[in-house]
Amino acid sequence: MTRRIRDVMSPAASAVEPMTTVARAALLMREEDVGDLLVTYDCDLFGVVTDRDIVLRAVAEGRDPGTTTVGAVCTPPPVVTLAPEDTTDHAADLMRRHAVRRLPVVERGGVPVGVVSLGDLVVSEDPGSALADISRAAPDH
Fold first, then answer.
1. Nearest Cα residue to 62 out of 51, 76, 71, 73
2. Separation between Cα atoms, residue 7 and residue 86, nearest integer Å
3. Is the dihedral of CA 91, 97, 101, 105 positive or negative?
């Protein structure tokens, strides 16, 4: 059953500005228990930084997390996005085509309003699956 993104997305996604250090972004990810942050500038979406970006584009390249900015390691514009009115089928298609697990959700004008993840889609479309059970499970700290 296809649903609208607004019904399955995680609203109020965490965001940082491009000049935020990678170290601060990593701390925020830990505090918020998320694997990605929207990178915004003046309420507009600039990019997305993931835990994988931090590892591959900063730590593995020997960059100093205390001085390297998320703007230097995030997925650069243009970022693939969804609108709240888009469907879960469209989201799955975009994730497949662009090999991503999370997509920012933006309203008209590019203002970010949330994020939809592969886990969100699985819980919505196949709630009895093992992946849905894993996605709903509390984090293991």
1. 73
2. 10
3. negative
pLDDT of residue 72: 96
Domain ranges of the chain: 5-136
* 3 state SS of 41: strand
From the list 13, 23, 4, the residue with the least C-alpha distance to 102 is 13
CATH assignment, 5-136: 3.10.580.10
Helical axes 118-125 vs 88-98, angle rounded to 10°: 140
pLDDT at 33 over 50: yes
pLDDT, position 132? 47
Number of Cα atoms under 13 Å in the Cβ half of residue 39: 24
